[in-house]
Amino acid sequence: MRKLVLLGGGYGNMRVLLRLLPNNFPEDTVITLVDRTPFHSLKTEFYALAAGTSTDKEIRVSFPEHPRLKTVYGEITKVDLKEKTVILEDGQVVPYDDLVIGLGCEDNYHGVPGAEENTYSIQTIAKSRTTFEKLCGLPPGSTVGIVGAGLSGIELASELRESRKDLKIKLFDRSNRILRDFPEKLSNYVKEWFIKHDVEVIANSNITKVEATQLYNHDEVIDVDAIVWTAGVQPVKIVREMDAEKDRRGRPLVNQYFQLTADEHVYVIGDCASSDLPASAQLAEEQAERVVKVLRHRWNNEPLPEKMPEIKLKGFMGSLGKKQGFVYLADTTVTGRIARLMKSGLLWMYKRQNEH
Known about the structure:
FAD/NAD(P)-binding domain, 6-stranded mixed sheet, single chain, 2 domains, alpha/beta, about 30% helix, 4-stranded parallel sheet, globular
């Protein structure tokens, strides 16, 4: 039997499974999904889990079941491209003929002293649970520092405000305005929400050192009771250590078919693949659609298309608590209650599409 192995049950590989199951792959092929947890986690909602406004169960989706889909659970320690095997922490060895790597990313601490040791994370469901326990266990009047004012930082700050009105929240933004690369209307809307809800945004910040209860912003020392790091990501360690050509951010270089430049049997998608587009669930899903097309061509012994269709992202959505939000779609900005309903509707559709 031919072995198609999927590493990581994130948005990319969930889309691969959605397109191949139940009967859109050859009868002589077995699919193996390798993940550390027995369910797909909605990473775009980890901020709500950490803030205590969504439960663990609300942000999980079961993996599909199929006679020729095998699930293997555990921590991956190595991808051996020469031997065509994946090695797990418990000693299991998973051989493959074709491999799709969708292992996502982890926090990038940019070499800031103390950042890794002294901050909390929302990069995995397990880390988000730990962050929830810390944030929601803080005494009234405590100060939470959130480093990084991208989408994750904005959503965490707003949701935490909704969950804990008694906390002081400081959001550290490297740029001079929130969501600097998007229309000013969007920036102003988010900024005004933070002013109204007493979230302090510290613009032009540069965190140079982190201690357990202190943040060093330029030369200023700021006392805090807990720190959450949302200031950038990098590919997971296993992918950074893979013997493959990489870009300056440690992400494996891929061709237009999302194959490694030196290995046509290994595909890389999602946050750990080199791309000019911003990392997102939407990008991982679009990359997965193209990988499925390539696999089908190969299974049918057909030549690959000379030119793969370009990926065009539709935009992005963000929430400000459970009642307000913002959407940037086709160069149009939508804010307020309607934007929040759009995001909730998309989440509902996604879960409905993927639940089995």
